[in-house]
């Protein structure tokens, strides 16, 4: 049991005196300025108790299908000791967070950080609320609080006194929060750690759930946008008069010097008018860029003399030069799109006194900042009402669509405007998974031991594209995810006496962004595919070759996956295993793929067995679903994911030109949980990284051919003759 000192004073916990924006606000179900006579009581920022014992838990992190919402509510409810069947939830707004001195802390949801970085303070919120409720009951009965027991929101003292949370909430709300609280040992969890049903599922399957694109309000207009087809190009001119009299058109607006927006009464009318709008673009020399020229740029970087060093041990070049056997291979990874089911959208209403936005977002505070900047109003005159978003995958962490919506609404003060990106606009103006190449060189001694390894990555930097202020002396450390020397986030798991991992930064004009799993994806492909190549060169089994080098926690998940998959045991005729492991987002993961390749080259992925050590397990059923979902996402990218560039512009425009995995292609996924209970790791992203290399290694076993360039759709998979 852990005692935590609480640093949140009463002023930060209690209801503020200022009212949340009324009208169409979708943030809280009760007003923040509820008077003292209100029967609905806030115990603290996370817990609201209704007289009927309904418990409302406020969660700042965004739910986008990954289960973060339910997991965090489980942690609060566990410490609160409430009745889970009476739990519901709501989003606070980022403006309210600012007003309360950021009591909910970080609103950003990405990097599988939702639970692992906020577990402590949300648990404290539940524990403090519990202690206040018990103190209120104890005061009413005039007994020591330590003599009370609580189970599922029912407080008892001996056999003769019983009350409920709802009955004492009003009195509890008047008490000072405790100075310290005791958090439960995970072994004693009754709600957390259990496979409870998700809180958001019912509304999704019944169609009740509203996403950003569903939002509507009286008098609302609808807009759609077209930016310059070539990212980085400018808008030269447009002829609004040509579409001004088309059905429903209200206004044509140019924004940011590179885009034009049509506002109409319906999306259909706005889209039709935008399609008919004559526009002229200035793309300059960017129109000369092709996929081939980008690849040539990356290829040059593979042997460039200058590169940023991300991980160095010993003298890799000398060790390789002196090795008995030298192995070299070059791999590449394309641009890829997030392909969220819900295209970017936001609704904004602007007046000189107030700017409000309704949208799905992975980062409510960033959206608030974007609204403030675009409106020209201070943040205390802006607010963002978070909606559930139909997929994020990193794309929802950027707020360009929020900025655009506010700029358009500013042109029509007092009128709410919903801006919707078409699927085509969404496909061609994303912040894409970066493209990279890697040259890997390894040296083996006479006994087949790896004595030196050099991985040269050539390619794009996400930070250089989006957050240049976060570069470290020009270097992007995020490039080395899964290859880092140490740390709790994405450390390299092999003990190799001589290492050199470096990066030749090459940045084309296509904007790179955070795509689910980010750089662990390609780095795991490079590292784990090459480990198989090294094992082959050493004449050793790929599992045995890895196990003699892997550090304990990395080795444990790989062994767990291999054992569960029956690695090394007979498989059905024509079936082959491939394996991979990585550490990413604070968790240790491994996967074993079972595949077959028909005589005519048809690939079938039969099964993926995946082991995960995420430290603590909050909802094992949700982890199982997240692992399965991560393979759907990762395998989809491995099979089909590729964004190409022609004349400076992205070629893919919809799902007809950017394929995704279909249900009949999805393999069986078996999840093996091996939590050690000594840390908090992420879940949603880590296993994506092992999907592609495990399959690639299995394909190499099945065919004798090594695929080093994704996606797989471009490759002939017939067995080597």
Structure description:
Helix content is 27%, strand content 23%. With 721 residues, it is of the alpha+beta class. It has 3 domains: 2-206, Aldehyde oxidase/xanthine dehydrogenase, molybdopterin binding domain (Aldehyde Oxidoreductase, domain 4, 2-Layer Sandwich); 213-284 and 344-420, 2-Layer Sandwich (Aldehyde Oxidoreductase, domain 4); 291-336 and 432-714, Aldehyde oxidase/xanthine dehydrogenase, molybdopterin binding domain (Aldehyde Oxidoreductase, domain 4). Helix 2 (68-80) packs parallel to helix 4 (119-141), helix 14 (520-538) runs parallel beside helix 18 and helix 17 packs across helix 18. The protein is globular, with a radius of gyration of 27 Å. The termini are far apart. Mean pLDDT is 94; it is low at 1-31.
């Amino acid at each position: 049991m852990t005692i935590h000192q609480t640093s949140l004073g009463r002023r930060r916990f209690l209801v503020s005196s200022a009212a949340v924006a009324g009208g169409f606000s979708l943030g809280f179900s009760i007003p923040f300025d509820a008077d003292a006579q209100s029967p609905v009581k806030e115990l603290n920022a996370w817990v609201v108790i209704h007289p009927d014992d309904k418990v409302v838990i406020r969660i700042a992190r965004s739910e986008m299908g990954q289960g973060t919402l339910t997991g965090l509510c489980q942690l609060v409810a566990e410490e609160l000791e409430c009745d889970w069947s009476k739990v519901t939830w709501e989003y606070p707004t980022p403006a309210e967070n600012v007003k309360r001195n950021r009591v909910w802390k970080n609103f950003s949801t990405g990097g599988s950080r939702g639970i692992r970085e906020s577990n402590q303070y949300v648990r404290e919120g539940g524990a403090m609320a519990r202690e206040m409720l018990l103190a209120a009951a104890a005061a009413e009965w005039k007994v020591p609080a330590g003599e009370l027991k609580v189970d599922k929101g029912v407080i008892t003292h001996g056999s003769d006194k019983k009350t409920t949370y709802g009955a004492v909430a009003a009195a509890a709300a008047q008490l000072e929060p405790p100075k310290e609280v005791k958090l439960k040992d995970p072994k004693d969890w009754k709600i957390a750690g259990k496979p409870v049903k998700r809180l958001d599922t019912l509304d999704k399957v019944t169609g009740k759930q509203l996403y950003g694109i569903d939002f509507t309000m009286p008098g609302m207009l609808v807009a759609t946008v077209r930016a310059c087809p070539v990212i980085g190009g400018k808008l030269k001119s447009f002829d609004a008069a040509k579409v001004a009299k088309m059905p429903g058109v209200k206004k044509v607006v140019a924004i940011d010097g590179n885009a034009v927006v049509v506002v109409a009464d319906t999306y259909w009318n706005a889209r039709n008018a935008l399609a008919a709008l004559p526009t002229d673009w200035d793309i300059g020399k960017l129109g000369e860029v092709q996929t081939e020229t980008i690849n040539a740029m990356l290829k040059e970087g593979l042997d460039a003399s200058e590169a940023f060093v991300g991980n160095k041990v010993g003298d890799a070049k000398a060790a390789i030069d002196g090795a008995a056997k030298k192995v070299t291979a070059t791999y590449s990874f394309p641009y890829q799109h997030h392909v969220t089911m819900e295209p970017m959208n936001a609704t904004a209403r602007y007046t000189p006194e107030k700017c409000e936005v309704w949208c799905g977002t992975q980062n409510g505070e960033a959206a608030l900042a974007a609204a403030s900047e675009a409106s020209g109003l201070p943040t205390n005159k802006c607010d963002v009402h978070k909606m559930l978003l139909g997929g994020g995958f990193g794309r929802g962490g950027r707020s360009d669509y929020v900025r655009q919506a506010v700029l358009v609404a500013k042109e029509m003060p007092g009128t709410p405007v919903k801006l919707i990106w078409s699927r085509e606009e969404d496909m061609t103006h994303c912040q894409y998974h970066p493209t990279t190449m890697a040259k890997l060189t390894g040296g083996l001694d006479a006994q087949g031991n790896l004595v030196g390894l050099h991985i040269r990555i050539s390619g794009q930097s996400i930070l250089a594209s989006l957050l240049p202020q976060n570069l470290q002396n020009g270097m992007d450390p995020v490039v080395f995810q899964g290859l880092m020397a140490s740390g709790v986030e994405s450390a390299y798991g092999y003990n190799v006496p001589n290492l050199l991992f470096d990066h030749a930064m090459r940045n084309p004009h296509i904007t790179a962004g955070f795509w689910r799993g980010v750089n662990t994806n390609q780095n795991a492909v490079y590292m784990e595919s090459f480990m198989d190549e090294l094992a082959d060169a050493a004449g050793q089994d790929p599992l045995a070759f890895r196990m003699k080098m892997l550090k304990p926690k990395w080795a444990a998940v790989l062994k767990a996956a291999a054992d569960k998959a029956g690695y090394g045991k007979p498989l059905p005729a024509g079936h082959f295993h491939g394996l991979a492991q990585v550490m990413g987002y604070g968790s240790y993961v491994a996967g074993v793929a079972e595949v077959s390749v028909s005589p005519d080259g048809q690939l079938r992925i039969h099964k993926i067995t995946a082991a995960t050590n995420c430290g603590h397990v909050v909802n094992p059923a949700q982890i199982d679903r997240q692992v399965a979902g991560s393979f759907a996402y990762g395998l989809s990218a491995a099979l089909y994911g590729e964004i190409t560039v022609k004349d400076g512009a992205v070629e893919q425009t919809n799902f007809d030109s950017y394929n995704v995995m279909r249900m009949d292609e999805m393999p069986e996924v078996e999840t093996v949980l091996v939590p050690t209970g000594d840390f908090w790791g992420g879940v949603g992203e880590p296993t994506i990284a092992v999907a592609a290399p495990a399959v690639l290694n299995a394909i190499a076993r099945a065919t004798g051919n090594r695929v080093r360039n994704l996606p797989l759709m471009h490759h002939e998979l017939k067995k080597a003759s």
